[in-house]
Amino acid sequence: MINADPHELRKFSALAHRWWDPTAEFKPLHQLNPLRLDWINSYTQLRGKRILDVGCGGGILAESMAQLGAQVKGIDLASDALSAAELHRLDSGVMLEYEEVSAEALALREPGAYDAVTCMEMLEHVPDPGSIVSACAKLVKVGGWVFFSTLNRNLKSYLFAVIAAEYIAQMLPRGTHDYARFIRPAELSSYARAAGLHLHAFKGVSYAPMSQHFTLSDDTSINYMLACVRV
């Protein structure tokens, strides 16, 4: 069985035509992207590296990594989102590749093929996040980096990431996130260690509503990222 929720795939496919509109539903991803791109690049210089973006959606991160000189492949199971990514690639002229395939299937086909793997804002949307973490570990070379970002599961994250972001500020469409699928850092750590990854650094992401800017933080109580190395 494919590790994907059909409802989640339909939800993101329905918004595919607005993926590259920086004022529409994916505005937070456009605002967040420079921060996460710089964070990834600070650990593994992207230029000349072979990079896989798992759960690439419309390609915002994948395309920006390719613009820095990486050889990028983006994968996703939302076909309409991938179509939006491919159309934007053709329009921008950036060289990268997209494929509709699961991380688990690609791990069987291309084990150890990538210098780094990114999986950002995706784990909280799948039935079995541990399986995705394991696949990411298999796809990266020994000594290569794997980067995750997701949402913590606690009262604060529910209030800010769901109630405030979706219902009050309307930064995101209602129903974007299912709080029950949020992942505590201890849980993600367990998945990563079981997959043979060495945990290098956790980093929180904070949002300032007035300036509408994301910044790195030591506070991992809501949004957070994890950098790992395959051992």
TrEMBL record:
Signal peptide: none annotated. Mg(2+) binds at E121, E124, H125. Its main location: mitochondrion. Its EC number is 2.1.1.64, 2.1.1.-, 2.1.1.114. GO terms for biological process: methylation. It comes from Linnemannia gamsii. This is Ubiquinone biosynthesis O-methyltransferase, mitochondrial. The keyword Magnesium applies. GO terms for molecular function: 3-demethylubiquinol 3-O-methyltransferase activity; metal ion binding; polyprenyldihydroxybenzoate methyltransferase activity. It catalyses: a 3-demethylubiquinone + S-adenosyl-L-methionine = a ubiquinone + S-adenosyl-L-homocysteine; a 3,4-dihydroxy-5-(all-trans-polyprenyl)benzoate + S-adenosyl-L-methionine = a 4-hydroxy-3-methoxy-5-(all-trans-polyprenyl)benzoate + S-adenosyl-L-homocysteine + H(+); a 3-demethylubiquinol + S-adenosyl-L-methionine = a ubiquinol + S-adenosyl-L-homocysteine + H(+). O-methyltransferase required for two non-consecutive steps during ubiquinone biosynthesis. Catalyzes the 2 O-methylation of 3,4-dihydroxy-5-(all-trans-polyprenyl)benzoic acid into 4-hydroxy-3-methoxy-5-(all-trans-polyprenyl)benzoic acid. Also catalyzes the last step of ubiquinone biosynthesis by mediating methylation of 3-demethylubiquinone into ubiquinone. Also able to mediate the methylation of 3-demethylubiquinol into ubiquinol. It is found in: Mitochondrion inner membrane. It is a peripheral membrane protein. GO terms for cellular component: extrinsic component of mitochondrial inner membrane.
